[in-house]
Design goal:
It contains 34 helices and 24 strands. The protein has 828 residues and is of the alpha/beta class. The protein has 3 domains: 109 residues, no CATH class; 365 residues, Rossmann fold (3-Layer(aba) Sandwich), CATH 3.40.50.2000; 264 residues, Glycogen Phosphorylase B (Rossmann fold), CATH 3.40.50. Helix 11 packs antiparallel against helix 12, helix 23 runs parallel beside helix 24 and helix 23 crosses helix 30. The longest helix is centred in the first third of the chain and has 29 residues. The radius of gyration is 27 Å and the shape is globular. The two termini are 25 Å apart. It binds ligand 26Q. The site of ligand 26Q has 23 residues, from helix 6.
């Protein structure tokens, strides 16, 4: 085994003339600080240095951006467009430096100027333009597409305010507006000249043509302008750079508006403010669409801007031939949020470019593909027909036409009975007429994918079963992946160094080679270093917990973490109830040889999600009680870390021993936190849900703790009807825990606070918390036993890291490129 050398992955790429590079960077930094930031190095603040550093890095990215763009243009390569209402990017400085391979040189250059790179990295605000998994997946995929030199663009919204900042006051979640742009964004380029007009409302005029056919002209009542902001996305080693284009809304020319409002400049500015509303704020709820008009405006605004931009580029590059669109363009819809792009493309092809309907439809289907991220019926988007007719009258007509042809085709095929027609219609009739955006996305796409093997199977047998019978080749699986550059190399340089030392630098370039680390699962020297790396990350997290919460954690204890959005189906409640049970056991038998354990929670709840917020309060109340109990001698600690975001995840994940992935089976489409945690050597305790199933197959049954009902058993047990009283009667431990929570042991000032929570469990227990409780507790006991065998634990942890290669977003993107987009990727 080679001796450890340098601390950062960048060190392994031999760059000639390191000293010269440092000098060049130092000069560039001073020049940026002086001429772009306008500050004297003597008086510059840390933030000034951050801006100078980011701008210096951006220059390096731009140097690689134009050759990338030119090559795509000259080779007339097919382009991929990733349409997503969310891009949960986080910070970019460390990521950009790492991908460019200049982390160490930049650190040295800054040090010579008396500035700490680590401190600059820490003051960068997170770009939190997403809620959770779906938005973070889009960010990982953008990074992998750049690393694999896929000619790709991301399209989304440049929200003025990303996901709210979470505060915890007396255990309750509070929400504070987020303001990531307050001190400027050094990564983006404003494009005042890239403007696209977006219409809303108005009327549709039928115009009879010479041949007797009608064409349609939409006369919107209102126009909003979309202005582009471009952020270059640099791939591994700067080989390729793609563009993330985010749109910001403004009213058209204020002068024209002023005239329109007959010189009333106050009214003119008011309509400016109204237009700008569209891109003010990210909707902070995941999974439960509220059907609000502003949300539909957001969806149409960015979908239309993207499509107009795509078509403009296509026409410029391909001799004005709209018919070849599908040969040169693939558009991926990240869930149904951009589904309105399908009728928008039809409008542009038929009304503007005058293609016959059937030809236009074939182009649309060949161009679009759709990723589904949820099976929860309440999470599938539906838009009231009345709202659509008012806001997007031409699109509503087009949807009716798509639906008519779709139903006609089904009838002709003879495979769908008349009773089934209502189920597969794009228009739902029973709850007031609504457009089913999932069905629209399905029929308008040539491929529809789920995000884990189990989720894809369930798509075929549940929500999309009727469609799957009619289009048996359309649904495909693309198991999610995460970018190892951010989630291993940047988050955990110590572990990365260790693996580079024992396996070689190839692990930096090719995730599959991580498998070779398995050969060291029993190597005592590797164990020692592996443990030291983890210990160091855990001490750092303990320091952070002390700083933020004044709670002391023992880095030798098992760090048991559940970090994700707060949702009933994710069952943080199951975790905290088991924590209470453990607390009871520890107090009852204080002299037993307990495993020191820390329960770490973090995650935001949608502001209006009452139960999720109440569970956060319960976690905090249990934490207060447990942490103050002297009989435990600190053997059990409970912490809720506020304001979970990408940056906090990067700090928690490398310090985690146990990864909680305990959703009700069949409800978590994939999960991606599960992959990040296992990659960093955490063992999973989890249900057979989402990607956990595949993680188990990769790491092996001995290196994961599975419990609970399977998805099929969940279905069966719901069909049967739950006997909650029986379950509770059969489990004295559960009985005791529920009594404590219900009677106010953790909320003495408000003894009835948690009564509704417990009553909900007893009444319906929709998420089967009670059903899985005993199995979960038993598995937790197995985990504690395993922890005592340090060698066994480390062996399992090393095997987890080693077997995560499959879950790289590079693998996922290769599959999309081959099976869905039909575009080339660079070889490994
Ligand atoms: C829809 C309409 C109106 C307002 C909000 C929404 C909305 C916003 C966000 C609906 C859903 C979301 C986010 C869903 C999400 O993050 N799903 C997760 O996607 C991950 C990536 O595939 C999976 O790993 C997770 O299992 C899945 O829950």
């Amino acid at each position: 085994m080679a001796a450890p050398t340098d601390i950062s992955p960048a060190a392994y790429i031999p760059l000639p003339q390191q000293d010269e590079e440092i000098t060049t960077l130092r000069r560039a930094l001073v020049a940026k600080l002086t001429y772009a930031v306008g500050k004297d190095p003597i008086t510059a603040s840390e933030h000034d240095w951050f801006m100078a550093t980011a701008l210096t890095v951006r220059d390096r990215i731009v140097d690689r951006w134009f050759p990338s763009t030119r090559a795509i243009y000259q080779e007339k390569r097919k382009r991929v467009y990733y349409l997503s209402l969310e891009f949960l990017i986080g910070r970019l400085l460390a990521d950009s430096l790492n991908n460019l391979g200049i982390t160490n040189q930049m650190r040295d250059a800054l040090r010579e100027l008396g500035v700490s790179l680590e401190r600059l990295e820490a003051i960068e605000p997170d770009a939190a333009l997403g809620n959770g998994g779906l938005g973070r997946l889009a960010a990982c995929y953008m990074e992998s597409m750049a690393s694999l030199a896929v000619a790709a663009h991301g399209y989304g919204i440049r929200y003025d305010h990303g996901l709210f900042r979470q505060t915890i006051n007396d255990g309750w979640q509070g929400e504070v507006p987020e303001n990531w742009l307050a001190s400027g964004n050094p990564w983006e380029f404003e494009r005042p000249e890239v403007l696209v007009s977006i219409g809303f409302g108005g009327t549709v005029e039928a115009v009879e043509q010479a041949d007797g056919q009608d064409t349609y002209a939409w006369h919107p009542a209102e126009t909003v302008e979309a202005q582009a902001y471009d952020t270059p996305v640099v791939g591994w080693r700067g080989r390729h750079v793609n563009t993330l284009r985010l749109w910001s809304a403004r009213a058209p020319d204020p002068l024209k508006l002023d005239a329109f409002n007959r010189g009333d400049h106050v009214a003119a500015l008011a309509s400016q403010a109204q237009a700008a509303m569209i891109t003010q704020v990210l909707y902070p709820s995941d999974e439960t669409p509220a059907g609000e008009e502003l949300r539909l405006r957001q969806e149409y605004f960015f979908s239309s801007a993207a499509l107009q931009d795509i078509i403009r580029r296509h026409m410029r590059q391909h001799d004005g031939e709209i018919r070849s669109l599908a040969e040169h363009v693939a558009i991926q819809l990240n869930d149904t949020h951009p589904a309105i792009a399908i009728p928008e493309l039809m409008r542009l092809l038929v009304d503007v470019h005058q293609l016959p309907w059937d030809e236009a439809w074939d182009i649309a289907v060949a161009t679009f593909s759709y990723t589904n991220h949820t099976l929860l019926p309440e999470a599938l988007e539906h838009w009231p027909v009345a709202l659509m007719e008012r806001l997007l009258p031409r699109h509503m007509q087009i949807i009716y036409l798509i639906n008519a042809k779709h139903l006609e085709r089904l009838k002709a095929s003879g495979r769908v009975s008349d009773e089934q027609m209502g189920e597969v219609s794009l228009i739902e009739e029973s709850h007031g007429r609504q457009v089913r955006m999932g069905w629209l996305s399905f029929v308008g796409s040539h491929k529809v994918n789920g995000v884990s093997a189990l989720h894809t199977d369930l798509m075929k047998t549940t929500v999309f079963s009727a469609f799957h019978k009619i289009y048996p080749d359309r649904i495909v699986n693309k198991t999610n992946g995460v970018t190892f550059r951010r989630w291993l190399m940047e988050a955990n340089p110590g572990l990365t160094d260790l693996m580079v030392d024992v396996v070689g630098p190839k692990i930096l370039h090719d995730a599959e080679t991580l498998g070779e680390f398995a050969a060291f699962a029993d190597d005592a020297g590797v164990h020692e270093r592996f443990w030291a790396v983890r210990k160091e990350r855990k001490a750092a997290l303990a320091a952070l917990t002390w700083e933020k919460l004044h709670i002391r954690l023992d880095p030798e204890a098992m760090f048991d973490v559940q970090i994700k959005r707060q949702h009933e189906y994710k069952r943080q409640l199951l975790n905290i109830l088991q924590t209470i049970a453990l607390y009871d056991q520890m107090r009852a038998q204080p002299h037993r040889n307990w495993t020191p354990q820390v329960k770490i929670f973090a995650g935001k709840a949608a502001a209006s999600y009452h139960n999720a917020k109440l569970i956060i309060k319960l976690i905090n109340d249990v934490a207060r009680t447990v942490n103050a109990d002297p009989t435990l001698h600190g053997l059990l600690k409970v912490v809720f870390l506020p304001n979970y975001n990408v940056s906090l995840a990067e700090q928690i994940i490398p310090a985690s021993d146990l990864s909680e992935q305990i959703s009700t089976a069949g409800m978590e489409a994939s999960g991606t936190g599960n992959m990040k945690l296992a990659l960093n050597g955490a063992l999973t305790i989890g249900t057979l849900d989402g990607a956990n199933v595949e993680i188990k197959e990769h790491v092996g049954d001995d290196n994961i703790f599975i419990f609970g009902l399977t998805a099929a058993e969940v279905q069966a047990s719901r069909a049967e009807g739950l006997k909650t009283a029986e379950i509770v009667a059969g489990s004295p431990m559960l009985q005791q825990v529920l009594d404590q929570v219900r009677s106010g042991v953790f909320s003495p000032d408000q003894p009835d606070l948690y009564k509704p929570l417990v009553d909900g469990l007893m009444d319906h227990d929709h998420f089967l918390v009670l059903t899985d409780f005993d199995a979960y507790c038993a598995r937790q006991a197995d985990v504690r036993d395993r922890w005592r065998d340090k060698t066994g634990w480390m062996r399992s942890a090393i095997l987890n890291t080693s077997h995560m290669g499959f879950f790289s977003s590079d693998r996922a993107i290769r599959e999309y490129a081959e099976d869905i987009w039909n575009v080339p990727v660079t070889k490994r």
